[in-house]
Every structure is written in structure tokens, then in C-alpha cells.
Amino acid sequence: MLSPLDVPESFTVRSVAGIFVMQRLSATEFEGRANAFVLDVDLVVRADATSVTAALSGDVGREGFGTVSTEGKVSFFEDAVAVISSWVDHVAAEAIEDYASDVKYLDTPDGRIAYWGYNTHLEGTPAVFVHGGPGGDSNPVKARRLMLDRPVYLFDQMGCGMSDPIKDYDAWHIDDYIRQTDAVISHVTDGKVILIGASWGAGLSLAYASATKYAKVAGMVLISPFLSSRKWNEDMDENLRSMGGDYLSIVEKARKNGVFGEDFYRTLEEYNARFLFCRKEFRPYALVSAREEPNETFRRLCGPNDFVTDGKLKDFDVSGKLSEIDVPVLFMCGDSDEVTIPRIMEYYSAVRGARLSIVAHAGHVLALEQFDQYRDAIRAFLSENKL
User: Fold this and answer.
1) What is the number of domains present in the chain?
2) Share of the chain above pLDDT 90, in %
3) What is the largest CA-CA distance in the chain?
4) What's the pLDDT score for residue 91?
């Protein structure tokens, strides 16, 4: 049975709203702050029962988002914390949606970069997420759900999401993205960071780390990595070949003629349903994504669709930089990823001491299809390497 002696002076509540380090205010009262939220807890331990009352409010004006109270027998202190964490997660989605936008902007010579910062009150090496695309955007909700015990930052690359458009695509180069990545990192911390890059974001992360000689990089997580346009295209053709039928010949004909008809898009639908989203429940996503018109940034940097790379990144290749990596690195991909298993093994084998996680029942968008495996692999990597 839980006793008053089991309750520490401080404890941590992990939730999608933030990581709250609860400090004792009185014999029973605790308070913690994170990401513009305040969590108040009243924990009364008696011989016959333990009562837990928690209230979540906004840091500005202390607008309340809800209160929960429970009473009963609690055998372990962790049970009381679990009750609080579960309740905060329950109300947090609505609270976060209703709260003021937490996006911030960094002014650069190229324009404004949108970025987000969570759990910045914590110590530890910050994690910086680098999104894919090019032309994608950040996912603040996913970053919150990881509940990492460290500062976490995300940013929209120029020409993406909430950042300003690229002014001159003809003059834009990978070096511009490297420079902007450095601007964000230098703005949020004076120290080193862990880069967590997915797809094109993995390629940009490696390009940045190599260009800056790892001066600000303590470790990297490279997810479904796009490290070479040539190798990426080879993997796509191998995947099309594995599908059987005439899928590959349809794509090759469309590439040659520059005509993308109904057969081509049906092929792209089936490809996405096997290698982008491989689980049956996500098939509708695959079909929609095959028909979506790519945005300007993707068209100018990659090409008119996923099967044609004739844009600014047509000669992009940082795979030769893998052997230079001298920080802890985790490679991750789905077992049905666009990045083939032989390719991820090639990348993994090139880095001494690297770790590898192949996520079961997942395609290229593995963080959506298998979030728990995605989260656990990242957490384990950070923990084992004491990052």
C-alpha cells in the first residue's frame, strides 16, 4: 500500500502536452510547467485510500482546460503518476487545439523560417527534426507524442509549410538548405543537437553534418533515408520489378515520353499501397497520395511526380559521406519501405558502430503506420548512447 513516505519531493509526468517536472509546493501540492501549460496536482495519501486531483491550465492567464479527481487504493507511486499522465493525454488534444498557435519565426536573408520548440525547460541534448519532401512540412503533433525527455525542435524548410516561399528556385541549391538548417540550430542552442531526419530530411541531415564537420551534431537518426537520387531511383525500379506484371514498363514508357496517363497513375497508386503505406487500413491514403498534385518546391527540386527525378536534386548524393560519420547513428526503415532492405544494409554497413531498426509491417511512412515501434526505437537509441 502506498504511504506518504513513497511520495518524492519531485516527479515527472510525461504527456503529449509536455514533460512536467512536478515540484512540491506543500505537503500534498505539486506544480509543473511545460509548453505554456501548468499542471497542478494534489496527492493525498491516507491509510485507507489515496486521492489524486489534477488540473491542467494555460500558463498565460491560467485558463483551465479540465480537472480530474480519483480516489482508491494505489499500491505504487507510479500508479498515481500513470493516472495523471493518462488524464492529461486525454484532455491535451483538445487543449492544444484550442490554445494559441505555438509556431515561432526566425528571420533570415532568404525569408522567415517557421519553427517550433517543446520542452525547452528541460536539460539534455536537443533533438531537431528535419522533415522530408522536399516540399513537406513539420509534424508538431508527432513530436509531442514522442514525449522525449529533452528539448525538441522542428522547422519548416524554406518553401515548405508555414515558412516563406523560395524567392528564386533557379538560384536555390542544397547549400541554401544547409545554411538555413545551421541558422535554426544556432538560434535554438549554443551546443550540439541530435538530428532526426526522415527521407529527404535524412539526406539533408547528413549533408549538413558533413558540411559543418559535425561541429554541432552529437548524433543522428536517419529514417528511410534518401541519400542518393541515383540509388533512390534504382530502388524504385527494383520495387516496381518486384510487383510483377507490366508496372515497370508502364513507368519507363511514361518517363521516356513524358506522358503520364491513367495507367501510370494506377501504377503509382499500387506502388504507394505497397511501399509508401503498406498496411491495408492505410490504402485510402495511398490512393489519394498518388493523385495529389506536387507542390512547387517538390516539382522544382525533384520532378513532376515520384517516379521522375529531373529537378535540382537529380544529381544529389551524400551516400559517400557515410564512412565519415563519427557520431552515434541509428538507421531505420520499414520492412516494406521504398528504401529496399539491401539498400539500408548498404548504408548501415558503411558506418562503424551504427545501429539498425527495421520496423515490421511498415512502409515509407513508418511513423504513421507503426508509431509505437518508431518511438521506442528512437528512445532506446538515445538512452543507450546517453545522448
Assistant:
1) 2
2) 82
3) 80
4) 83
